[in-house]
Write a structure and sequence with these properties.
mainly beta; 2 helices
C-alpha cells in the first residue's frame, strides 16, 4: 500500500517512518512517472534587505503549475556568522498556505529540525489522494541578521526534494536568496556576477559514446555539486553523485551505460541553485 495513503488510520510510529523516508530521500522511482519537467522552488524574492541585527522572514515558493506534489523536504543552508535561524512560535506558523489550505480535514504532518548552519523541514499532506501544484507559498523561515554589513546567501541544499504519493518528483530546480544586511557600500562582500560555476563544452562533440565521458567544470567557491547526463527525454542516464567539492577547476570521468544515438544534455547543478547545461550528440 502507498505510504502516503490512509494517514488517519496509521499509528504515530508509522507516520514517523514516513517522515524518516522522506528526509533520507529513500522513495524509489516507479514505472509510469511523468517525464522530467521544469519545477522551480525558490525564495519569493531573489534578494532580501534587512538592517544590521534585524529580524526578517523569507517565504519559499514553488513557481510552476506543471507538477503535483503532496510532500516535500526543504533543506536551507546559511552562514552562521551572518545569520541565525529564529523559529516562529509555534512552528506551525512556518507552514505555507499552499500546503495548509490543501486539506481541511487534517493539518499537514510537520517536522522542523533547526541546526547551527541549516534548517530542514518536512511537510506531508494527510488527506488521502490530495496533491497540490504551484504557484504558491510552501514555507516561511525567520532569521536574525548579525550586526554587520554584508551580502550572504540562503541556499537550498541537495536534501530539498518533492514527492507525489510516494515517488520523488523529477526535475526540481532550486534558486536561493541573497540577504543584504545593513548598508554595504559599493560591492564589498557581494557575490560578483562573473564568479559563477562554468561547465566546459564536451570535446569532441559529436562523438561516439564510450565507457566513460570526460567532463570539466569550475566552481567559484567550495560547495556541493553534481553532474548529470540526460537522455533526449530528459531522464538521467549517468552522472556523478552530489559531492562537496573545493573551489576551482574540476575534472570527472563519468561512467556511461550503453547509449543510443541521439541528442543528450550534460547538466551541472550546485547546492546554491545554479544550473549549467551543454548539448552532447552521440553518433551511431
Amino acid at each position: 500500500m502507498d505510504p502516503m495513503h490512509r494517514p488517519s488510520a496509521r499509528p504515530p510510529r508509522a507516520r514517523t517512518l514516513i517522515v524518516a523516508g522522506l528526509a533520507a530521500g529513500l522513495f524509489a522511482a516507479v514505472a509510469g512517472v511523468a517525464p522530467a519537467l521544469a519545477f522551480t522552488v525558490a525564495g519569493a524574492t531573489d534578494t532580501v534587505a534587512v538592517a544590521s541585527g534585524g529580524t526578517f522572514t523569507v517565504d519559499f515558493v514553488v513557481r510552476d503549475p506543471d507538477l503535483p506534489f503532496n510532500a516535500f523536504d526543504l533543506s536551507v543552508h546559511f552562514d552562521p556568522a551572518k545569520l541565525t535561524s529564529f523559529p516562529m512560535s509555534p512552528t506551525s506558523l512556518q507552514r505555507g498556505d499552499l500546503m495548509v489550505n490543501a486539506c481541511t480535514l487534517n493539518a499537514p504532518f510537520h517536522v522542523f529540525t533547526p541546526g547551527p548552519d541549516s534548517v530542514v523541514a518536512t511537510l506531508v499532506i494527510l488527506c488521502d489522494g490530495v496533491a497540490v501544484t504551484g504557484p504558491g507559498t510552501i514555507y516561511h523561515l525567520r532569521f536574525t541578521a548579525a550586526a554587520t554589513n554584508a551580502y550572504t546567501p540562503l541556499t537550498l541544499g541537495a536534501g530539498t526534494s518533492f514527492y507525489n504519493a510516494g515517488p520523488r518528483v523529477a526535475g526540481v530546480v532550486k534558486h536561493g536568496v541573497v540577504v543584504k544586511i545593513g548598508n554595504p557600500v559599493l560591492d564589498a562582500g557581494r557575490p560578483h556576477a562573473a564568479a559563477a560555476p562554468v561547465l566546459d563544452a564536451v570535446v569532441p562533440n559529436p562523438s561516439r559514446a564510450g565507457r566513460t565521458l570526460p567532463l570539466s567544470f569550475s566552481l567559484p567557491r567550495a560547495e556541493s555539486s553534481e553532474v548529470a547526463v540526460l537522455d533526449p527525454q530528459g531522464r538521467r542516464v549517468a552522472g556523478s553523485p552530489w559531492t562537496l567539492r573545493d573551489a576551482g577547476p574540476q575534472r570527472l570521468e563519468v561512467a556511461l551505460p550503453p547509449l543510443a544515438p541521439g541528442r543528450y544534455t550534460i547538466t551541472l547543478r550546485t547546492a546554491s541553485g545554479v544550473t549549467r547545461s551543454r548539448p552532447w550528440v552521440v553518433l551511431r
